[in-house]
Amino acid sequence: xxxxxxxxxxxxxxxxxxxxxxxxxxxxxxxxxxxxxxxxxxxxxxxxxxxxxxxxxxxxxxxxxxxxxxxxxxxxxxxxxxxxxxxxxxxxxxxxxxxxxxxxxxxxxxxxxxxxxxxxxxxxxxxxxxxxxxxxxxxxxxxxxxxxxxxxxxxxxxxxxxxxxxxxxxxxxxxxxxxxxxxxxxxxxxxxxxxxxxxxxxxxxxxxxxxxxxxxxxxxxxxxxxxxxxxxxxxxxxxxxxxxxxxxxxxxxxxxxxxxxxxx
Length: 264
Hints:
Elements: H1 21-31, H2 42-49, H3 53-65, E1 69-72, E2 77-80, H4 82-94, H5 96-112, E3 115-122, E4 125-132, E5 148-150, H6 155-163, H7 166-179, H8 184-201, E6 204-209, E7 212-219, E8 227-234, H9 239-262
Antiparallel strand pairs: 1-2, 3-4, 3-8, 4-5, 6-7, 7-8
Helix pairs in contact: 1-3, 2-3, 5-9, 6-8
């Protein structure tokens, strides 16, 4: 397998031994497409996945044949095709967890006029499963289901880190340290403080975007994935002030969400 120079910074592959290498590599091709990367050629896909160009060429042809990729001859590149969106819709509309917790999230968002989100981890990022937006500024109402945010910078991600096994957490911290070497010491301190805050108060808070404060708490229920629930708002108030005001509502909503998931 070809390895590019920046492979070390790429998210780790599946931790368990793959059952089908071709399928795993095909999934890596699909994962390479992110917002802002509508069209990718074989060379770009090889760089993003660490696969050889010959392997990428065979896989893209197969994915075009199955309808999951479209090929544009003019650009000699590929884009995700409509069935990918259909799969995402099937996941959201068919999820009993989202059906159970979305009304609870919407009610709290309307009551307090803030944003409420539920996310799960995918490798070294958090993916929003549901997002109810009540920002006053239209320009900030852009967080939607499916959007990714970095684990290490966000309250969502730090709440998730507080709830996972130590070995998994250390593996992620190693990735973050390699990716953010220059500012890692300060960032690690923030992560440690957030984890301690979750253990002491049940939630953590962060402000990684200007004038946006977010609080988050982990949702751990039985065999379900570890989720993270957050509240966020646009404000000029100090993050600690917002935490004191909305920590209670967040924890009460989290209790309702856990109970809803347990009842499924």
